[in-house]
């Protein structure tokens, strides 16, 4: 990349970065990323990690990293780029487990959590139950205009969270609200956001207390992730009660909203291009490549943060220990030097496995197999039960509350049932 | 060491490498494995099948690797994670097959 061939002046780029949190950029950030990729990282983004509250917490200025090669470098070097989040630690937000841990503690925690997300566990404990529930969810959504985000996409991942932690299924609505507030998307006032953080914390303190009490009383408890965290031991190390609570919160915020937006974005592609419905209905082997290209082109988690531990260089730009980095997986996924014609939806790209929506390296998304299963079940159930979908993408609206997530806030659609 | 690798498409290729981490990197670069976690015994995208008769040449499977393998739907005896593999005894040739994605 030739840094001499800049098409924007330094001031223009700085302005571009300053405006990244505008609703226009949040709802369509890709043209901005395209311009930023022409430059080495620029400092000055004032943005909000998950859990922090705009208007209450003071953002640290961040370097903006957008090129694939650079994002890959950050992801693969956790000893240089720490996942601890001082901004989140100073806010009212509960700290996240795993996501905000470095090695060696990260390894121990990951080993505890990963057993619940194996392909076998997902297959044995989640798939059939979810398929039954998704059938019911779609059945009650047929032949009427619905908001896909509220009635389908918002329900499935939060419902799965209730299975994973043995919570009452009807509590999924609470989890959706709290996840939206935590992930700084959607329109909440700063007071509402802070209240949500507190409610989320107290909900799990109560649920975890009850589970501990039941276990101590010898009552049979559900064999789920919450029980596993309570009973877990790794090399003599157990989790404290507070860590169990924080793990539950981490699952909710990491897995509810992101997957909701993913499921919504899949429906969005089908509304954008009406041919997809029939192509997928006739050939279900296209579902996986369709999902992967949607993850690449429209991946919900747009960017994450790292704290720099050692002086280093990114694309020739000197970065100092103590600096704060915002790296944009979504910008990397649109790097034309890796994915030609990145704005186009092209399935079967040979290097599609290189998309970084689920990250890479030690923090690669633990829930990725689960997210894919949820999405695949939704698609297959809709394709089984419907002859088509009606609606226009122009009636949709993308969330514009924060730069973390790319997804629809509203997606009106009608699922047209097959005529039996 | 010569490693004869059958990939997921059934194509066979021979690699001349000093060790398995070199093979891991090469197969990742060629996108024959995703190598998503970068080799830290986590993503299982480097799941391979080895012949049972070759087990004596290969490093023992530790508890972490075993835990990951046991969670896979397509695990068989002879399953290993390439990112964790090394040789216990001198090995000139090895045959492996890249397991299907989970």
Can you put this structure into words, describing what you see?
Chain B: It comes from Zhongshania aquimaris. The complex is a heterodimer of chains A (420) and B (102). Chain A is of the alpha+beta class and 420 residues long. Chain A has helices spanning 10-18, 23-27, 30-36, 68-76, 86-89, 105-113, 119-139, 148-153, 155-165, 172-182, 190-216, 225-231, 241-255, 257-272, 275-282, 287-298, 329-332, 368-385, and strands at residues 42-46, 61-65, 81-82, 145-147, 233-234, 237-238, 303-308, 312-314, 317-319, 324-328, 386-390, 397-398, 408-410, 412-417. In chain A, a hairpin with a 2-residue loop joins strand 8 and strand 9 (317-319). The relative contact order of chain A is 0.18. With 102 residues, chain B is an alpha+beta fold. Chain B has a single domain (2-98), classed as Beta-grasp domain (Ubiquitin-like (UB roll), Roll). Helix content of chain B is 18%, strand content 23%. Chain B contains two helices and five strands. The mean pLDDT of chain B is 94. Classes of the chains: A alpha+beta (420), B alpha+beta (102). The A-B interface holds A 76, 107, 110-111, 114-115, 118-121, 123, 350-351, 353-354, 358, 360-362, 364, 369 and B 31, 34, 36-38, 40, 42-44, 64, 67-68, 70-73, 102.
